[in-house]
């Protein structure tokens, strides 16, 4: 049996607009981000890909995106699961820094190593930082696992168990699943789904607010690469993400 999986990065956030490293900082959508999310839901409705269950991160921008998209698709009523395991990659001490200034200060090689290498995390974020999540009640239950920085490899390691134990059973049970998450948590999931190498994943960028659809078999293997419902806009959006900081 084939099962439908929709991946959706949140719409433009306040910190995407300001060009700041975001990670686990809980910023909201901009006006543009809200319309991207609503349009994503309209695309789902037009294509007849209607979600039966939603999995989101615990960050507000992904939750807002899901709500707006499901509202346009008239599917606000579907069951919802939330997990920190779908959160954006924790950006460590880069959280809150301007991308262009960081590029200028540290140079292209270091900047890209932090942004897109598979296994080099940025320096850890101090618990006393104003951008730390140390006192955030939503992470109270995961103290041993709450990161202070993460590379993409760390995200794969915390996300794949959630994919296997929580998302895949919904899919193989016959539900069309919508996952609303983030640029780097979705890069981790796409890497796992499509078997992309540690080196090649550096070149993959996920645009904001663009539904990416997979047909997945009962073992979780997709029939082919993901298909954006609006490929042209998705390519332009991905190029804009790749160019951030420049
Ligand atoms: O700042 C972030 O958390 C991410 C996604 O917005 O940025 P980048 O694309 O640079 O990894």
Automatic annotation (TrEMBL):
Family of the protein in this entry: Belongs to the phosphoglycerate mutase family. BPG-dependent PGAM subfamily.
GO molecular function: phosphoglycerate mutase activity
Pfam families from the UniProt entry: His_Phos_1 (PF00300)
CDD domains associated with the record: HP_PGM_like
The protein's Enzyme Commission number: 5.4.2.11
Residues binding substrate: 9-16, 22-23, 61, 88-91, 99, 115-116, 183-184
Gene: gpmA
Key words, A-Z: Gluconeogenesis, Glycolysis, Isomerase
Pathway(s) per entry: Carbohydrate degradation; glycolysis; pyruvate from D-glyceraldehyde 3-phosphate: step 3/5
Residues the UniProt record annotates as site (Transition state stabilizer): 182
Catalytic residues of the enzyme: 10 (tele-phosphohistidine intermediate), 88 (proton donor/acceptor)
Stated role: Catalyzes the interconversion of 2-phosphoglycerate and 3-phosphoglycerate.
InterPro entries linked to this entry: His_Pase_superF_clade-1, His_PPase_superfam, PG/BPGM_mutase_AS, Phosphogly_mut1
SMART domains, sorted: PGAM (SM00855)
Catalytic activity: (2R)-2-phosphoglycerate = (2R)-3-phosphoglycerate
Protein name as catalogued: 2,3-bisphosphoglycerate-dependent phosphoglycerate mutase
Domain of life: Bacteria
